[in-house]
Structures are given as structure tokens and as C-alpha cells.
Amino acid sequence: MTDKLGDNRSEEIFEDFKGEYTREQAVVEANRCLYCADAPCVQACPTHIEIPQFIRKIATGNVKGSARTIFESNILGMSCARVCPVEVLCAGDCVYNHMGMPPIQIGKLQRFSTDHAFDAGWRFFEAGPDSGKSVGLIGAGPASLACAHELRREGHSVTIYEKRAEVGGLNTTGVAPYKMKADRSVEEAEWVLGIGGVEVKTGVTIGQDVTFEALENSHDALFLGAGLGADTAMRIPGEQLEGVHGAVAWIEKMKLAKVPASARTCVVVGGGNTAIDAVREAGGLGIRRVVMVYRGAQEKMSGYRHEWRAAQVEGAEAQWHALPVAFEGDGKVERVRCVKLDDAKKPIPGSEFVIDAELVLIAIGQSKLGEMLATLQGVELDRGRIVADEHGRTGRKGLFAGGDCKNGGKEVVNAAAEGKAAARAIHDYLMGGTNA
Amino acid sequence: MPDLFTNCGGITSPNPFWLASAPPANSGAQIQRAFDAGWGGAVWKTLGQPIQNVSSRFGATNVRGVQGAGFNNIELITDRSLEINFAEIYDTKKKYPKHAVVVSLMVETKQEWKDLIKRSIDAGADGLELNFGCPHGMCERGMGSAVGQEPRVNQEITSWAVEFSSVPVLVKLTPNVSDIVPHGLAAKRGGAHGVSLINTIKSIIGVDIDRYVLEPRVAQLSTNGGYCGSAVKPIALHMVAALAREPKFGLPISGIGGISNWRDAVEFLLLGSSSLQVCTEVMLRGYRVVEDMIDGLEEYMRTHGFERLDQMIGKAIPSFSEWGNLDLNYETVAKIDADKCIGCHLCVVACHDGAHQCIHPVKDGKTRVPVIDESECVGCNLCKIVCPVDDCITMVQVDNGFAPSTWNEHVTQGKPLRPKKGAH
Ligand SMILES: Cc1cc2nc3c(=O)[nH]c(=O)nc-3n(C[C@H](O)[C@H](O)[C@H](O)COP(=O)(O)OP(=O)(O)OC[C@H]3O[C@@H](n4cnc5c(N)ncnc54)[C@H](O)[C@@H]3O)c2cc1C
Ligand SMILES: Cc1cc2nc3c(=O)[nH]c(=O)nc-3n(C[C@H](O)[C@H](O)[C@H](O)COP(=O)(O)O)c2cc1C
Ligand code: SF4
Ligand code: SF4
Ligand code: SF4
Q1: How far apart are the first and last CA of chain B?
Q2: pLDDT tens digit string along B229-264?
Q3: Distance from C-alpha of B390 to C-alpha of A26, rounded to nearest angstrom
Q4: Among the four A341, A405, A416, B91, which has the fewest Cβ within 10 Å?
Q5: What percentage of chain B exceeds 90 in pLDDT?
Q6: Does domain B323-413 have CATH number 2.40.50.1070?
């Protein structure tokens, strides 16, 4: 599958932002860990990896045991080591913060052990004896991969339906290349699926190529891990001009193929993490001037502070309290016309200004996919999210959900946790326990 | 999957990791939690006439920022009633039939030994451990190390225990002796099925330099205590190996002293231990440390081609020889890998002040990688020990043209020795 990705992809020029540890760097850092009991870092990890335990094993030279500890909780531990925003998860809660000391570099230590496992070809889990039950999974993103793996450990037969040609979901097509490149995500998906017995049907869109009901009839249970939909549009004049893109769509192209980087200025609209990623990616591709246009105050942006700080260091500019009102140009975008907003987010008369830009990336959110299920009995939607309990049980018998489509868009690690939790619930359901 | 099952003197357990007789093995609830965490066995906190303890009881040595590199205590044997202890032993054994539950005992009279042995066995003990080791408190009452230091007394009490017992008897030896071998042999003559060692080493852990009182302080006084933890491992390894290589000995050994991870465990196994007891590391970090011990040992066995523990137990013993048998013509020198060197000059200062003044800084202002004068390097290892970078300094063998010769061969057969290095 890896070779499906072309070479000469735009993302390849990026280097790892957090480099890999050598053995002794890892050991020095591992020995700094206090091996806390009931550790706050573990609680902060959505998959509850036994962090002190895996770190101690690095310190004693038991790297294989360390990797096992990680994968036991989170089968996507390799990609999570690279893409997790540890600053707001595990490392953000490390007790060293209370000592005024840098927290343990949990992500880098996790990368050390999991990369080792991949390099050495270690595998830790086997498929369970055939249960005779079959589960269909919609989407091949982190949520479905984690779910599929756990279901295979219980011996259920698993089919994944994925509309794209590539597996891995946004882990392949979305995460910033200075964290992880697409091929590594595909490699991980293959490693996870290496447990065997998972059929992956790519190029199949459920609801289009196969109806949801037909799928329901051919499996004993279904898991919905379809993530979010396309970039939300601004619905302002000039949005169809060449050079104006939805950020997620542009990022996907940058990761899987080639995007032109000839623009002198790029405007990114939005203030979330996708917006900051797009800013840093445009800059990294060599676009000299990158301006983020956000409608609120800097303190109000939903993107992580540490990410924005990094973007600033790399030279990004920002327009706070500003909103594009039109994209202008002759066939291709040349200018972004903006207006300043007051505290109530109302346009301030006479505050219009123009930024010359040849590339515009719109990162104001992704639509929810829930609509596909809206007509199904028992399925409840909350602003486009599938409503499901903590075990992924929806209101419809035999239908489970997890990941972005359920949580509205969080991180890979949440998708991994929810996919695994749903697999446990599906197993109970299939084995005659609790109903969905 | 390698098999970790062990048999130490007739006491079997699913893996060789046992809690040593100490606070982590103080009660049934604790030991059951430890078994759930993966421990293969436990030696119950020593039973005898319940005592009264002092507070505080523990002290620790901190070495360059590492807390508890060495540990010491002045606590005594169990302070809980015998009835409760025996009821909990019974309950634990019923719930965990495959795990080893060994009962440690320390009493005075022959009748007391007889009584407690019977009650231990009735409660389900898989074996007994005779505590001839405690170096404080109990010895003043004629027990503990007062017994362990006297081979004749050791032999006699052991023979009582063996006579009264229908389960295997291990004798726990004190390290507070100049040579462990006669004490191991005394236990053997008494009929013991195996020995456990080491108990704690007589020590003063430190002084409160503002109050002028020893630590751990009990009001305005303190006393000598028992030293244990990582720092004592080398002493324990030596004592274990000294018995393991003694041809007249030949009993199974339960190794104890400073085991804190799987590597330590492997070392004790290679030097002849067939079970491994841990106290301090559990006190400092909890029962959960056994997870790394188990999977680290399993991986070690896999990579070294061992399927069962008995294939590795004692495997390093043949390498333990007398100084007089070491090859004096074997020569090594230190080499620095310039690509790895971070320029800290710890090797320079160590060699200059503590060895043979043969590592020199390069004073050209361009590099901090030191140079080694190999004609002067005696191959002592000090620079390698202080270097903070893995495999940056290696000790490389040099061919000096001399055939091997030991001191013994030199003296008895006149074999030639290479010229001394660094002896100006
Ligand atoms: C730009 C961007 C950057 C991100 N960066 C990070 C980061 O650095 N760290 C981090 O932890 N998280 C990051 N995230 C979030 C993270 O990628 C997601 O939370 C995670 O991938 C969600 O996993 P999922 O399995 O729920 O959904 P997805 O990863 O979205 O996977 C869903 C899959 O379902 C398929 N699908 C959808 N509909 C259908 C259908 N009808 N039929 C068949 N298949 C279908 C899709 O093609 C897709 O492959 C980022 C997200 C974005 C958008
Ligand atoms: C607080 C404490 C109490 C101990 N009590 C006993 C005891 O009751 N009986 C005994 O045989 N050994 C006792 N020991 C000794 C331990 O069992 C063990 O032999 C010693 O600590 C060395 O092992 P370690 O380095 O793993 O701690 C005690 C040790 C400590 C630290
Ligand atoms: S909170 Fe920090 S120091 Fe404590 S266990 Fe977690 S990583 Fe280690
Ligand atoms: S460790 Fe527990 S018993 Fe000991 S002093 Fe602290 S709180 Fe008290
Ligand atoms: S101790 Fe090691 S790293 Fe430091 S200067 Fe010497 S060789 Fe280099």
C-alpha cells in the first residue's frame, strides 16, 4: 500500500520538528522520570498508556517491554508519539511542571520505543479464534484501525470500507508533515492490520456505492469511524477563484501530491489548529509572507498556544479581529478584502483593508458527516455529531461510533481510545451481553 | 515463550521473583496484591514473638541526586499477632495455590521453633526461612545475626527446624561475617534444603549534622541499622557467587540484595540463584516493578536462547577465579570515538587525578576531544566509567606479542611477563 503514495510529494521537504532520540538521550530522559504512582500523565492520556512503566523499561534497557506497554493501551502509539499535542495532554500534566522544570518528553520517549518496534518488526498481538461474527467499519482512519485491531483480538471478522484510496484517515492526509508524513501513517496502518483477517475495501463510499442499510444487512454490527466532512465554505464573493482552497483539502494535496508554492503571500483564514498548521506548512514550502486572518482576539483562538508560538518564530503574521469579505482577482485570486470586527464580532464601518495574496486557505472548520445517517431510526445527531455513549453505543441496535464523527473533531489519540472502547462494547454486544 | 518456573530447594513458583521478608510482605492483603501484580512468591515478614517498633525506622543514602541508592532500617520482626498472621497465610495460600508462600521465622527456644513450624505448615506454608540475619535489635536478644555469625549455633537450630518440618527449609544468612562459606556449610550440615542471602549489612546510614544524632533519629538517639537496596548488590553478588562456586556446598540459593530491575535479576541467576528476593525496590517504587523484571528476563532468555531458568542458573560461575589465575599479559588501552565525544573532559580529570595521567586535552582551540597516550594507558577502565556517552570510550585489546601468563604460572613455571606500563 505504501507505494501507492507517489514520490515527489510536497510534504517531503519538511523535517521532523521533534527529532528522534538516540538510545542514550532516551535513557537520560527516562531516568529523570519519577515513576509516579497513579500518575497524572497517565490520566491525561486518552488511551491511558502506563507512561511511568514504559519509561522505566527504557531506563532498564527493556525497550521491547516498553513498546508492549505502549501498544497494549494504544495500538496507534507510534503515530501518537509524533502527532499528539503532548503539551496539552500527558506532558502538560507531568508533575515536573509543578516544580518549574521542563516536563518529561513523553512523546519523544514513546517515539523511541515504538520506532524501535517498527524497525525490529516486533508484533505483540495475535488474532483470537474465529468467533463467527462479522463487523463492518466505515472509514479507515485512526478510530476504525484501533477498533478493527481490538475486534480481531477477539476473533471477529472485520471489513473496513474506505472511500479514499489511502488508509489512515487524517493521520495520512491531514497531520502536519513536520510531525509525521503520509507514508509513515500508511506504514502504521499496515502494521496494525498485520494482525491479519481484516479485509480493507478502499474506493468504496458508504451511502453512495453501498447503502447503509445494505451494509447493516451484511454484518452483525457496524462501527462508524467516518470522521468529519469537507472544509466549511465562507460563502463570500470570489471563493471560486483559482488559488482559494479549503485548508484540509489543500493539506491533503500537499501531503499526497504536489501543490504549487509560487505565491508571494498566503492568507489563512481561521484560528484553530488546522489554520495554524496551514500557516506553518505554507511557510515551510517557501512562501515568504503568511498572514493568518482571525475574527477574534489572539487569546480567544482555539489553536494551541505552543503551536502559534512556533508559527510566530517561523515568521507568521496575524490580523486579529478581522474577516475576509471578498476574494478578488482575474480568474486567479490576487487580493483578500477584509474588514475589522468589534468585540461583538460586528464589522467596523470604514475599517476595510486589503491583503495582496495569491494563495488563500480557508480553515474555519469541517462539516459534519452525520447527515448521512440522519434518516436512520434511533440515530441521534447533535450539531452533526453522532450521539453515542462513552462505549460508542448509538441509539440504533448494532451501530457504534467513535472518533471525530462522534466527538466533533479532537485528536488521533481520542479516535484511538474511542475506537478501542467501541470494540469492547461491540464484543459484548456480539457475545450476547449488553445491547447497543 | 521461555518458562520462568522455578524450583528453589523444593519450593516452586511460576517465576523466580519473590518478595523478601520485610514490610512489602507484612500482611496477606499486601502479598495477594503483589501476586496479582505478577510476583511469583513471597517470604512472609519474619514471625516470632511480636515486637514493638520505633519511629522513625528508615534512612537512605542519596548519591548525586539519586534518592535511596542505599537504604537502611532499624525495624524488627513482625509486630502483628501470630494468630492474625497464620490466618492470613492460610487465606493467601488457599487463594494462590501455585505461588510460593514461605514463612520466615525467628524464635529462641527449641519448643518455640517446634510450635511455630507446626503452625506455619498447618497454615499452608510451602517452605520455611530461618532468619539468622537481622543485624539489630534481635541479635542483642540472642537471635538473628547472633545465630548467623556462629556456625555451630546455626547448624544446631537448622537441624531442629529440619527435624520439625515437613516442608523445605531455607536458612537466611547474614552478610555480617568475614567469609560466608563456613556459614553456608553450617546450614548444610544442619540439613537445610537451601540458603537465602543476603540479609542486611550492619550500618550507620548517616548523621543529622545539625542535631548531632545518627539517622534515622528516634528522639535524641539512634542505633546501627541494616543496609540494603541497590548499593549492596555487589556485596550480595559476591556472597552468592562464593557459595555457588564452593564445591562442598551445592545447595540451592535464593539471591537477595539490591535487585531492582531485570538486569540485576539476570546477574543473580547467572551467579547461581534459583529464586530472587526483593525488598527495597518494592518499598521505594511498589509491586509494579515486577512487570519490567518479568518481561525483561523473558526477553533476555529469548535473545540468549534459554528456554528454562536452569539453563542459565550459575552460567557465569566458571568465570569467577582467583587473582593469581588472571592473564597478566592481556593488555587493553582506551580509545575515544571522536564522533561521539561531547567534550566534557570528565575522562581527562579522572585519568589525571585518579589514574595514570595519559588522557590529554588538545589545546589548539579547535577540538574538545581529548587524546589518549596509548603508550602510557594501563587500560584501567576509569575513563570509560566516567564517560557519560555510551560506547564513546572503549577498551581495545592490544597485541603485545606476549603469550598469556598468569602470576601463578610466572611464579611456578617462570613464564615471561610483559613490561609494566605506567610504573615510572
Ligand atoms: C489539518 C489537520 C491536522 C491535524 N493534526 C493533528 C495532529 O497533529 N495531531 C492529532 O492528534 N490530531 C490531528 N488532527 C485530528 C486527527 O487527524 C483526527 O482527530 C483523527 O484523524 C480522527 O480519526 P477518525 O478515524 O475519527 O477520522 P478520520 O481520520 O477523518 O478518518 C475517517 C475516514 O473515513 C473515511 N470516510 C468518510 N466518509 C466515508 C464514507 N461515507 N464511506 C467510506 N469511508 C468514509 C475518510 O475518507 C477517512 O479516511 C488533525 C486534523 C486536521 C484536519
Ligand atoms: C525495613 C526492612 C525490614 C526488614 N525486615 C526483615 C525481616 O523481618 N526478616 C528478614 O529476614 N529480613 C528483613 N529485611 C531484610 C530483607 O528481607 C532483605 O534481605 C534485604 O533488605 C536485602 O534486600 P533488598 O536489597 O532487596 O532490600 C528487612 C529489610 C528492610 C529494609
Ligand atoms: S508525571 Fe512526569 S515524572 Fe511522573 S510518571 Fe508521568 S512523566 Fe514521569
Ligand atoms: S510512609 Fe506512610 S507510614 Fe510512613 S511516615 Fe509516610 S505516611 Fe506515615
Ligand atoms: S568523558 Fe567521554 S565525552 Fe567526555 S571528553 Fe572524555 S571521551 Fe569525550
Answers
A1: 56
A2: 999 999 999 999 999 999 999 999 999 999 999 999
A3: 12
A4: B91
A5: 91
A6: no
Cell numbers at B93, concatenated: 495460600
| Domain covering B6-319 in this structure, CATH number | 3.20.20.70
pLDDT tier for residue B424 given thresholds of 50, 70 and 90: confident
Give the ligand whose atoms come closest to the C-alpha of residue A252: 1
Please give the model's pTM, rounded to 2 decimal places. Answer: 0.88
In angstroms, what separates the C-alpha of B69 from chain A's closest C-alpha? 13
Ligand lying closest to the C-alpha of residue A43? 3
- Residues of B in CB contact (< 8 Å) with A are 261-263, 285-286, 288-289, 291-292, 295-296, 299, 388-390
- To the nearest 10 degrees (0 to 180), the angle between helices A63-73 and B290-304 is 120
Residue to mutate (ligand 3; options A57, A58, A96; most atoms within 8 A of CB)? A96
Q: Rounded to the nearest 5 degrees, what angle is found at the Cα of A411, between the Cα atoms of A140 and A367?
A: 70
Active site residue B377: no
The answer to whether A116 faces chain B, any CB pair under 8 Å, is no
**Distance (Å, whole) CA B126 – CA B166:** 9
Contacts of A127 (CB under 8 A, 6+ apart): A152, A153, A155, A195, A196, A197
CB-based contacts of B83, cutoff 8 Å, min separation 6: none
Check: CB of residue B101 under 8 Å from CB of residue B31: yes
| CA–CA–CA angle B72, B77, B80 (5° rounding) | 125
A316, A279 Cβ separation under 8 angstroms = yes
Residue A354 beta carbon below 6 angstroms from any ligand 3 atom = no
Measured at the CA of A347, the angle between CA A341 and CA A349, to 5 degrees, comes to 115
Q: Flag whether pLDDT at A295 surpasses 70.
A: yes
The domains of chain B are located at 6-319, 323-413
The interface residues of chain A toward chain B in range 37-66, judged by CB-CB distance below 8 A, are: 37, 53, 56-57, 60-62, 64-65
A144, exposed or middle or buried, with CB in 10 Å at 0-12, 13-18, 19+?
Answer: buried
Choose the closest CB to A65 out of B263, B286, B292. Answer: B292
Across the interface, do B262 and A60 touch by the CB < 8 Å criterion?
yes
Nine cell digits for residue B54? 520505633
Only one residue has cell 493521520, namely A171
pLDDT score of A2: 46
State which ligand 1 atom lies nearest to the alpha carbon of A372.
41
Residue A66 pLDDT: 98
ipTM confidence score:
0.80
Which residue reads 464589522 in cell numbers?
Answer: A347
Q: What are phi and psi of B60, to 5 degrees?
A: -145, 155
**Which among B134, B228, B358, B387 is annotated as catalytic?**
B134
Domains of chain A (ranges plus CATH)?
A: 17-120 (1.10.1060.10), 134-227+369-430 (3.50.50.60), 231-366 (3.50.50.60)
Amino acid (1-letter code) at residue A306: H
Measured distance CA(A118)–CA(B299) in Å, rounded: 17
DSSP per position, B322-371: -GGGSBTT-EEEEEE-TTT-----HHHHHHHHHS-S-EE--TTSS----E
Residue identified by cell 531506563 is A59
Residue B1, pLDDT score? 87
Distance of alpha carbon B385 from alpha carbon B381, whole angstroms: 6
The grid coordinates of residue A372 equal 448521512
Report helix angle A51-59 to A63-73, nearest 10: 170
CB B171 within 8 A of CB B154: yes
Q: Single out the residue of B117, B119, B115, B123 nearest to residue B93, CA to CA.
A: B123
Q: A169 or A373: which carries more pLDDT confidence?
A: A169
Domains B6-319 and B323-413 share a fold: no
Distance CA A157, CA A134 (A): 5
